[in-house]
Input
Amino acid sequence: MLERSELIQSLEPILEVEGIHKSYRVHRVLRNINLTLPPGVVGLLGPNGSGKSTLIKAILGLVSVDSGRGRILQFSWPEQSRALRDQIGYLPEDDCYLQGLQGIESIQMMARLSGLHRTEALRRSHEVADLCDLDQERYRNVETYSIGMRQKLKFAQALVHDPQWLILDEPTTGLDPSQREQFLSRIDTLAKEKGKSILLSTHILHDVQRVCDHVVILAKGEIRLVDTLARLQQPTQAGLQVGLISDAERFMAALAQVGVQSRRTGETEIQVLGDGPEILKRIWSTSCETGISIHRIDRARNSLEQAFLDAIRDSGRLNTGDPTAIGNNVSLPEYK
Amino acid sequence: MPILDVGYRNWEGQRTPRWTRAAIVASTGIHLVWQGTWLKRVLLFMVVPAAVAAFIVGTFEQTIERPQARSVLQGTFRSPAVKQAAKAREIDLAKVLDEPETLRHFSWSYVLFGLLRYPQSIGMIVLIGLVAPRLISYDLRSRGYLLYLSRPLTPLEYVLGKAGVVYFLLFMMSAVPALLVYIVGLFLSTDPWAISHTWDLPLRILAAALVLILPTTAVALALSSLTQESRFAGFAWFAIWVLGSIAFRILWAAEQARNGGFGPRGRRMRMEELESFTSWMLLSPYDTLGNVQQQIFGLIPKEASAWSPWVLLAAVSIIGYTIAYRRVAGMLKA
Output
């Protein structure tokens, strides 16, 4: 059976752009962006100043690009970027609101700007306000909202006109852990049950791991990595992730003596090469001999964090737009 | 507690045409400014001059109907301003008392011009000073422009939508009262020829209102777009009108004094002289607007009409809208 990310990849891409360059005077913000995005949830990762927001604004046609062309949804880009905005729901990173309006009025106005008639806009506004947990606060003026409330409001505004594609720029900023979980769960539901495509721009790797099918990493205005999350987390060699109570160094030395290669991946975490029954037996016997307790053993996965750090490093630059090459290029510390 | 918890539902419906979206920006802006109590008070107060103007027009119509009331009309002829305006229309005030209906067009024009020139223009300065500074500056401060422009709306449409708020208010306080005065005048007149004598006045009212609306909106929006603090824009707005007017009057008086226009004890500036065009007038937006409106109502002799106030207002309009547009479009690059 095909995995969700593989299934999605076989569908028509929602975005195909090539040769995007953008400079602000002498400062080059986007350099030769060639990108193809499948439907589903795509995480756009990058350090601050990497060009994520500019890329999003360029996609929306809010900033003009120096060069580049392509196709987004069913529209030619950038020629039809205005029509495209009718089909995109954008949640800006900035703390933006319309001063003086109530929450519900603010959502209704955004719906009307996207072409919904007044009554229909009001009905949809209440529907999405309910979906986003904007209870009676919807009748309060937006300038009195907390940051978390404003994030919910912006999400409702992005969703109210039922866009084909949602672009969410740092959507979980300012949310407490439970709100964040609810928010991610909402994204997951929209993607999996309602078939929405979502571009999630964030620097919170956990959010990406939680909901994304694909990952795009941008650094210094260049695409450094495009791949499925599943493939990124796949280890290049079979291995086991072993969590210890203490003394990882002594445990690794003891493993080496019985012919098992391992490497340290955390304070009390090690990764063991190989995952057969024989390896497991040696791990348990080492635990017995050294007296170091094991609290978990999992199949080893590469961390997204490591892939991210490798990708944004200049030396770790990957072949742009070549998804097949990416998983293998993620470098990890050597086994010993 | 949810109000209509039906989960997320897809929506399929007919969208409104894209060209209507700027009107939504305008209607939202009107909704927002309408929440201010001062706005309602000022608008209500602006009805008073219109009522006075309607009373004057009604009185004039009565003087036509009743010969014994013509002494009222005769009294107004002593005003130098009326004399100058009559001269512009080549009206012999000594003869018109026999056929006062020939004076109808002139009288109505004069009253309507007076309404637009003085109470409505001054009210406009106050009202726009209260409303317009926040139109764009609030959005710049709260970054609300991003929300607008993430929809199928161009920066130009956004600016036009914001301008629509000012257009609406100015139309309501300039053209609408003047048109009401005109309609009331028609109702109070028993002469069926009143319409044929005055058919062009509604057009002149609209033209005069347009001349008032377009440049003032451009200036107000430009100021609003230049700052995130609406109080600075408000201060600049009032400064332009007040300082411009003071500068014009000082320089005009100085020029008069240099040309020997004042006697040894000096004399008070007369309104009709102030209405005559001089280059210094271009310093004062209030007087420049007044001069153009006077031309529109045909209350200035053709040979004394100047084109430079028109050029100035056109230039101010173009520059004002361009500044507002460029500021909004430029914010997206930040």
Summary: Chain A is about 35% helix and 25% strand. Chain A has a mean pLDDT of 85.
